[in-house]
Predict the structure of GMP synthase [glutamine-hydrolyzing].
Amino acid sequence: TWTMVNIVEEQVEAIRAQVGETGRAICGLSGGVDSAVAAALVQRAIGDRLTCVFVDHGLLRKGEAEQVERDFVAATGVSLHVVDAQRRFLDALAGVSDPEEKRKTIGREFIRVFEAAEAEVLGDAAEAGEKVAFLVQGTLYPDVVESGGGAGTHNIKSHHNVGGLPDDLEFELVEPLRTLFKDEVRLVGEQLGLPAEIVWRHPFPGPGLGIRIIGEVTADRLAILREADAIAREELTAAGLDRDIWQMPVVLLADVRSVGVQGDGRTYGHPVVLRPVTSEDAMTADWARLPYEVMERISTRITNEVAEVNRVTVDITSKPPGTIEWE
Ligand code: XMP
């Protein structure tokens, strides 16, 4: 639309003015819409002087790493630095089943891996006699208001404990989405030609599937949840419900088993929980009254296609008292 074209042009100009003719920028991609749109805008403004970093922690849903590595790159031509940290995250999560400890572990590893990647990108730039001075972030208007942030840019200090970098290294933030609401960000993303799967992605937590496995996170359990989640998402999309539902976590009760029967055989598998909710802002939520036919298709497909799952249940708790995620 005309307005979105304007926003894109305006932001591209503003980014050019801020970063200048020679400045270089770095941006972390999460798979979500905000970082993707912010990166795409900066790419349009300064091209190869932007490097994106994507840490694959192995906790994304089926197809999401490929969406970033293949589809996002194809749509934007962005220069991407991928870190495959799946093994590292699994090792760090071994034996951890407490929700808070899981979150802390994932957060800590993420910062370490991201900073190491940043250092590598910075090192490459320094070798070429260039200086990376800008850090792109997908901060939205509601985030700005919530944190009481004023206008203009601010400097943050990056804590590098990875060798060879000056202690006083400072990044200036580039936040091209600071004046926008989520729905506007999505329209800008469409305007920029980003893949629909990224632009219309439901909210997804930073710790990813790690907090949707109740119990220890292992490679096998991730594989099970990824399959079940992919089926649930596929059916929700097929039913045309993506925009009515705020999000629908699928949760694997990995430490629970129940007896079932399939064909002639007894099964002893895991339950998954569908958690469809409607919400305005995730502060409160209502459980979504999914049509029975949709629940039926999801249940039939998951129990047929995911061997380790023999029961599908639906969470009918609002927030409060429940939270949206189970951990
Ligand atoms: P809860 O479970 O608190 O979730 O009702 C509210 C919303 O926040 C998302 N969520 C997160 N997002 N990092 C994120 O970026 C996190 O650690 C995180 N935890 C929860 C959740 O998916 C829901 O949209």
Remarks:
- DSSP finds ten helices and 13 strands in the chain.
